[in-house]
Amino acid sequence: MISGSWQRKRAILACLNQGEFVSGEALAEVLGVSRAAVSKHINALADYGIDICSVKGKGYKLFDPVFLMDEAKLLTNCPNRCFYFDEIPSTNAFLLQYTEELQCGDICIAEFQSAGRGRRGRKWVSPYGSHLYFSMFWHLPLGMSQAMGLSLVVACSLVSVLQQLGADNIGVKWPNDIYFENRKLAGVLIEMTGTADSGCNLVIGIGVNIAMPQQQGELIEQPWSDLRQVISDPDKTLLALTLQQQLRKDLKLFEQSGLAVFTERWHAADIYLGREVRLLVGNESVSGCYQGIDTQGGVVLDTADGLQHFVGGEISLRQA
């Protein structure tokens, strides 16, 4: 349910999303509030990572469009329960609180995360309405041991969805990052609770850059891309619904047949296959020709000492 405060902020964004300057007087009239209240909402939106230009005599204008979910379309068309928020600390953290009450395929989506996380504890920059922040619950009956290679399966699902929506020239970087023209487009963070040989609850977190605001992009320490560079008019609601359906389909297949049935899809999208790479394993570094993945989803390198396999732990793959 959208709060009154967010309804007014959304109304402002709907006006500004037309791409033209809108005066404070016009916004005040649309919202039925004072100009001072409009200014307060504009300042609050800036705090949520939205770049808004203010010019005396002209009014306000968005530097970049904001892509909001169509809540009615999302909730009507999602076959599972969908928890949708304007703001939340973390979609993953929310689902992790309620794993015992969830069913496979239930999702959580937010327009803003105040504590979004990436792999290895990194912060995921989460400006309001600019990207997709998505988490889905899944249960593996055979425990954590059954999850071996799962992150690669999720990456394959995400590539399939983006290609269905018209994205070309995208690929995967082990273990689960999605790249467009050697710049990161999306990432995956999977968190789990359970034991090695009994039931295991998973929360699959996915972040997809849709329209990165310039100021927020400057906070990111690695090359990035966004879906606007790949698809002219991305539909975030369609992306979320298609992703939920594809993940359900692929996770059921993974439960039945394991990682082997996804190997061909992975190698078709693998941007480092056959390239010289440097693998960071903790404080060590190993160089070689990257040969793709093994049956467990680990990295295979052709090194001076022959073929070597690496799986799990603090591993980072870099182009040589």
UniProtKB/TrEMBL annotation:
PANTHER family: BIOTIN PROTEIN LIGASE (PTHR12835), BIOTIN--PROTEIN LIGASE (PTHR12835:SF5). The keyword Ligase applies. It catalyses: biotin + L-lysyl-[protein] + ATP = N(6)-biotinyl-L-lysyl-[protein] + AMP + diphosphate + H(+). It comes from the Bacteria. Residues 24-43 bind DNA. SUPFAM superfamilies: C-terminal domain of transcriptional repressors, Class II aaRS and biotin synthetases, Winged helix' DNA-binding domain. One of its GO terms (biological process) is regulation of DNA-templated transcription. GO terms for molecular function: ATP binding; biotin--[biotin carboxyl-carrier protein] ligase activity; DNA binding. Belongs to the biotin--protein ligase family. GO terms for cellular component: cytoplasm. Pfam families: BPL_C, BPL_LplA_LipB, HTH_11. Residues 75-255 form the BPL/LPL catalytic domain. It comes from Shewanella fodinae. This is Bifunctional ligase/repressor BirA. Biotin binds at S90, T91, N92, Q113, R117, G118, R119, K184. Keywords: ATP-binding, Biotin, DNA-binding, Ligase, Nucleotide-binding, Repressor, Transcription, Transcription regulation. Its EC number is 6.3.4.15. Gene3D superfamilies: 2.30.30.100, Bira Bifunctional Protein, Domain 2, Winged helix-like DNA-binding domain superfamily/Winged helix DNA-binding domain. It is an enzyme of class 6 (ligase). Acts both as a biotin--[acetyl-CoA-carboxylase] ligase and a biotin-operon repressor. In the presence of ATP, BirA activates biotin to form the BirA-biotinyl-5'-adenylate (BirA-bio-5'-AMP or holoBirA) complex. HoloBirA can either transfer the biotinyl moiety to the biotin carboxyl carrier protein (BCCP) subunit of acetyl-CoA carboxylase, or bind to the biotin operator site and inhibit transcription of the operon.
